[in-house]
Fold these 2 entries.
Entry 1:
Amino acid sequence: MPDLADVYRAQARPGGSEHWSGPPQMVERIARTLGTAPADLVVDVGCGVGGPAWRLAELVGCRVIGVDVVHEVVRSGARRFGRRVRFVGGAAEALPLRSGVADQLWSLGTAAHVVEQDRMGAEVARVLRPGGRLAITEAFWEGRGRPRFSATAPRPWRPLTVCGLMSALQASGLDDIRALPWPGVGIAGAYDASDPELRRDLREGRLVPTLVVGRKP
């Protein structure tokens, strides 16, 4: 089972994909769902090399800050997309940002790699301004049979249920928390994961990609 940081470093090498968490078209769909506006400041937690963050900035014209725990990946993202996106190193459980700074917070395919969901929820609530919106995508465990991906997933990773995440977000003070269809539905190749065990889990419904949204009162 590989280390997450090593996998991210490999993906960040020249020629690698700029979108690790689903097809690029997901960005437009999430922006429509949340009503992202040009005046917004959006924080992308677990941004990787920044493909979605750059696409959002280009699409909407908003400001975007990308946060990732792997500093080599942050540097790679800054070289590629620093003209439109600000990149900073930091963990989802301890975001290096001022309280109430963000109009929206996105986290695409990162939540299952976060060990302390309660701390992540608290940081989301701290960084969002009142009325700020949240979007999290993940392949969630349905609770029926342990995912095969557990044996091959980059560590840290653990099966995460929708209810478990929503409970952590609710405990942090967020409201209007809802589970919506994954924004990659209907896009060609959206389920073509590189890991064969993950592909099997997705095909058999052990892991179900979903979009979770919420709001800070």
Note: The two ends are 40 Å apart (CA to CA).
Entry 2:
Amino acid sequence: MRCERSEKKQAIMALEESLRRIKDHLDSIDKAREQAIRLSRDVIRLSSQIISSVVSGNKEEARKALEELEFKKAAFYETVRHHGELLYSGITNNTLSEYVEAKIVSKLVIEERIPGQDELEVPPVPYLQGLGDSIGELRRIVLEKVRANRLEDAWRILEIMEEVFARLYIINYPDPLVPGFRHKIDVARRLIDDTKVMLIDLTSRRDLEKALESIVRRGCGEHQQ
């Protein structure tokens, strides 16, 4: 009987020790999660600010915000990377995809290049998500170029959108592996098609106006003679 009580006590003690370790583990994750949420808000806010600055043509403002974004992103990633439950969670994918989107759009406009995954130091999934979302932001820049009557620049950006899309389109994995990616690609296709139709129409109108102006000028010249 005494032996049975001793074994039972040992079993209870082992259970308590196991639960204590689980609690310590979850406490650590919960603390990291709370910090990650705060940093995530900063990363998303700065990313949005950078894209707005780039779209509006304020490159200097974008550069200043990019410096702070790098600091916040590094702090966020350091917080989640030691916890698999957080590293592969929705909050990490969403946060880093916003970061990727801001970096790609700003690098394209300011330096005319697209940074790769290794350069941005992010996992593959948020890189693909951010690259897909960047097509929508590039369309906003196209619209700004159109508003400024810079159709050649608008066409150049459309070509970049098409190049990015062509390379993303061949990446075909199920949604559980790359959440939301195929939907982003479908949206990107529609945006590119709509943008191309718009630019073709505007370019045709501009060319027609130039042709008419040329005819009018020739007519006026002949009349004066």
Note: The helical segments are 2-55, 59-80, 84-87, 90-111, 117-120, 124-147, 151-169, 181-224.
